[in-house]
Structures are given as structure tokens and as C-alpha cells.
Amino acid sequence: MAKKSKIVKEMKRQKLVAEYADRRRALKAEGDYMALQKLPRDSSPTRQKNRCAVSGRPRGYLSKFQVSRIIFRELALKGQIPGITKSSW
């Protein structure tokens, strides 16, 4: 489980990105890079980090399912992810 502070910080970043998205798009279209630099750093979408929706783990993230590899395996073995079965040959 990730630290609560890291999870909260990432959620704050997501809100900032959504809040400044239109303003950022307009400034880029105008080519006004000086005004773009004055926006908060965390409002840039490239500063976001993918995190597991269940545990908050930043590594081993599977974007299709939005969970980490560990949680994915647990859910798949319990049969809670439709269409996923353990392979055997």
C-alpha cells in the first residue's frame, strides 16, 4: 500500500490538470510560452503518474485495467475480472 500522502498528492495533481486544461490549450495555440510558464507546474499532464486504483502502487501498472500487477493477479485468481483465466497448457 502506498503512502496516503502520495495518493492525495496525485489526486491534487489530477484536479489541477483538469482545471488548467482549457487555459493551457489556448496558450499553446497562441504560442504564448511566457504565460504558459507562469502556470503551476503540477498543472502539466506530463507530471502525472499512473497509480493503482486499489493500492496506489506506482510501479507495475497495467493501464488496461488501471491496477498494479499484484492486484491484477489477485482479482484474476478470484475471478473478479471478466474474461481473464489462468493459462494452462
From TrEMBL:
It holds the Pfam family Ribosomal_S14. Part of the 30S ribosomal subunit. Contacts proteins S3 and S10. Gene3D superfamilies: 30s Ribosomal Protein S14, Chain N (4.10.830.10). Binds 16S rRNA, required for the assembly of 30S particles and may also be responsible for determining the conformation of the 16S rRNA at the A site. It comes from Paenibacillus helianthi. Belongs to the universal ribosomal protein uS14 family. GO terms for cellular component: ribosome. Keywords: Ribonucleoprotein, Ribosomal protein, RNA-binding, rRNA-binding. This is Small ribosomal subunit protein uS14. NCBIfam families: PRK08881.1. InterPro entries: Ribosomal_uS14 (IPR001209), Ribosomal_uS14_bac/plastid (IPR023036), Ribosomal_uS14_CS (IPR018271), Ribosomal_uS14_sf (IPR043140).
